[in-house]
């Protein structure tokens, strides 16, 4: 099956993250078309994905457009029933769907005060009472989900599912704005920050161009609250250890240094997304460790 997914800036578009994770986390191939939010290109993209009014929007192989993340999740689950998008257990599946539906429709105060921003993290953000109420509700339903499903691991309903996809941007908000949550919620946030798929998304977002001024806040900043990535930096030239790009297999033209060695890639984006977080990319780490 051929899918085409329209997304916005990876650093800022929380719903785009949800749409992309529905493919990346469950091993479903997709072609993405990314444009910058608040630009003429974004308006043109939406016209091409009519009747979508925002991103993500999914085009199926027959040309049908699905312009909503929850609808995308359900359509993919129908088409790929063994992918694990929803839990196999009936009770866990019902709980996961309830969680995703509430996330889709609620938490307006949190969304407004703390827009997703994967390029910054703040020491504080002075959350008002409605944001604190949203956080309390999140902790309530996350605890309820674990109690209902008996989830023993880091995720809400057993194995990673669409419920976790829908809360991934919430986890990044808690991390970005240093929001006050209890130990169990903090562990859930940490699981998202360590998730390789989310790390790949954030790495790509960090090298996609300048900051969007709309998302800048004047609160004191702190480092991103996750393990520091493997040090890497772009360099002007080789020779490189590898002759072919680890992602495309094409000849290398761009280079980075990591671990005291030089590695090659077929274009600047392949190089830069790797330099942003080398350990997020299994294809690169395979040759790095070899």
UniProtKB/TrEMBL annotation:
Pfam families from the UniProt entry: GST_N_2
GO molecular function, one term: maleylacetoacetate isomerase activity
Gene Ontology terms describing biological process: glutathione metabolic process; L-phenylalanine catabolic process
PROSITE patterns noted in UniProt: GST_NTER
CDD domains in the cross-refs: GST_C_3, GST_N_1
Domain GST N-terminal span(s) in chain numbering: 3-84
Identification of the protein by name: Glutathione S-transferase family protein
Lineage, opening ranks: Bacteria, Pseudomonadati, Pseudomonadota, Alphaproteobacteria, Rhodobacterales
């Amino acid at each position: 099956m051929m899918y085409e997914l329209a997304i916005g800036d990876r650093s800022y578009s929380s719903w785009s993250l949800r749409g992309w994770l529905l493919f990346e986390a469950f091993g479903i191939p997709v072609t993405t078309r990314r444009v910058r939010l608040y630009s003429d290109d974004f308006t043109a993209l939406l016209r091409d994905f009519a009747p979508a009014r925002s991103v993500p929007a999914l085009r199926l192989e027959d040309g049908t457009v699905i312009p909503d993340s929850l609808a995308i999740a359900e359509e993919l689950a129908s088409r790929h029933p063994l992918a694990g998008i929803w839990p196999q257990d009936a009770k866990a599946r019902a709980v996961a769907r309830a969680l995703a539906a509430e996330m889709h429709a609620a938490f307006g105060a949190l969304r407004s005060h703390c827009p997703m921003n994967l390029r910054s993290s703040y020491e504080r953000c002075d959350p008002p009472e409605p944001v604190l109420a949203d956080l309390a509700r999140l902790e309530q339903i996350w605890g309820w989900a674990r109690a209902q499903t008996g989830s023993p691991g880091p995720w809400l309903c057993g194995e990673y599912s669409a419920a976790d996809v829908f809360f991934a941007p919430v986890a990044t908000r808690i991390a970005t704005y240093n929001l006050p949550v209890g130990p169990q919620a903090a562990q859930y946030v940490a699981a998202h920050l360590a998730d390789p798929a989310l790390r790949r998304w954030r790495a790509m977002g960090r090298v996609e161009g300048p900051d969007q001024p709309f998302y800048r806040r004047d609160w004191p900043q702190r480092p991103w609250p996750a393990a520091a990535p493997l040090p890497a930096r772009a360099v002007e030239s080789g020779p490189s250890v590898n002759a072919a790009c680890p992602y495309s297999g094409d000849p290398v033209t761009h280079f980075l240094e990591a671990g005291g060695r030089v590695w090659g890639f077929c274009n600047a984006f392949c190089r830069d997304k790797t330099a942003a977080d080398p350990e997020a990319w299994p294809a690169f780490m395979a040759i790095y460790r070899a």
